[in-house]
Amino acid sequence: MSDRAVYQTPFYYQFLIGVLKPLYRLQVWRRSHKRDNYQQEVAQRFGKQYPPRPAITGHSNKGVIWCHAVSLGETNTVAPLLDALLASGYQIWLTNTTQTGFARGASRFADAIAQNRMSHSYVPVDTPTVIETFLTHVQPIAALFVETELWANILTKLAEHQIPSILVNGRLSASSFKSYQKIGAVSSSMMKNLALIIAQDSDSAKRFRQLGADSAQIRVAGSLKWVINTPKIDVEAIDSDNLAVDAKDASAQIPSKKNALAKKNALAKAFAIADRPVWVAASTHNGEEETALSLHQQLLSQTALANTLLIIVPRHPERFDEVAALIEKTGLTMARRSFDEAINADTQVYLADSMGEMMTWYTLANVALVGGSLVDIGGHNPVEPASVATPIIMGRHTQSCQSVVDKLAEVGALYQPNNQFYRPMTINSSNECAKSTVNHQYGTDSTDDIALIYKQLEAWLSDLPLATQAGQAGETITVQQQAVLTRQLAMIEDVIERYYPKNLGQEIL
């Protein structure tokens, strides 16, 4: 086993965590005491009770890997990597911080949990005694942390136990970097206690080095956001009343261009909207639905786009009724998915207030506006619509997925008003000159951005062959980027082999 140095967490951090621990428990109570799983959450966060460890079988005995994914986005991002580790013979202990992340982990890995190949809990609070209890119970051979979620005491305890900790899909934005700089001693201890940092891009790698990581600890491998588990869409499962599509998770599969277009056409026919331009505002947050509805009203005012359909998919289920009321205030005709209401010829807005069907809406749409980007959330994953050949529009707030956004923009699959990499598609079209003018302008503020977004939305919906070509470019680059999963998996196994050179492939603990 490797014998790495342990870098102790500064005393002031440990003192502060100790002071904040009861306040954190109060925060958990306020957020979740009305939910059924409150007692479970508290017990797991504070080391009182955990589910059993994953079962070790004769043909699957490589040991348990602990993976921490903060919320929904990180859980979705790391899911294909966890699938690959499970397939390689490892067991997984998955932890989450947020309730949305926990719910997603429970549903996404329901089969693996039922088969005792994976265990699932909330993350322990960052105090030494709770972490010690957690590690004694789980006995992990390695720990994975997704993107930027790091806790100093946890990393110190892992180092003391000589358990390698790996930051996977590591991303450090300029704003996060400044925050970590303010606690320089704590950040330095965390960087040095990590066995490996797998960075998404060179900018993040540079910032990790500036925080105290050694160059030998860092690898640049690309973003796991390129690797998604595209749900199977059973078009035949849609009946005449537009009831549910089978959108359960399946193994990762990126359809061919022919299949993607065929699915789009089949879905449009099944929903009785084959002759209508369709766009989706997906994973929207407060403030974004108003913008989408305003854009839609502008589109409907044009004779050529008067029959356009907008599908709105709010990010959080608790906002479904709020968004429905917002749509009603506009006077636009609405149908709701949760009410099994059909899309009629006069339906102008379809509220997709359901869970697990996002890929259906991305496939159905001619253009996708990806949320979390018009307001300062960081932007949700644009690879999902790109994987089904749907062109993408995003606002300026894409710091959570900027490297992916830039690559999609460079091939013309994603439009972002302030993106210097954007290269528009050009085909023989009467609108070609106008598109070129629009796409090379940049907004100086959010108002300018919305005006430019409208022009791009109008351009694509008015020229669906152009939109199709842009979508296909996104699908092509998505396929090309799939090797990132293999690279990150190999790097993880290399670390495990260095720590356990005589036991790789055997039961370690």
Automatic annotation (TrEMBL):
Main location: membrane
Gene Ontology terms for molecular function: transferase activity
Pathway(s) the chain acts in: Bacterial outer membrane biogenesis; LPS core biosynthesis
Catalytic activity annotation: lipid IVA (E. coli) + CMP-3-deoxy-beta-D-manno-octulosonate = alpha-Kdo-(2->6)-lipid IVA (E. coli) + CMP + H(+)
Pfam families with a match to the protein in the record: Glycos_transf_N (PF04413)
Organism of this sequence: Psychrobacter pacificensis
Protein name: 3-deoxy-D-manno-octulosonic acid transferase
Function: Involved in lipopolysaccharide (LPS) biosynthesis. Catalyzes the transfer of 3-deoxy-D-manno-octulosonate (Kdo) residue(s) from CMP-Kdo to lipid IV(A), the tetraacyldisaccharide-1,4'-bisphosphate precursor of lipid A.
Documented EC number(s): 2.4.99.12
3-deoxy-D-manno-octulosonic-acid transferase N-terminal domain span: 42-226
Cellular localization per UniProt: Cell membrane
Keywords from the named record: Cell membrane, Lipopolysaccharide biosynthesis, Membrane, Transferase
Family classification: Belongs to the glycosyltransferase group 1 family.
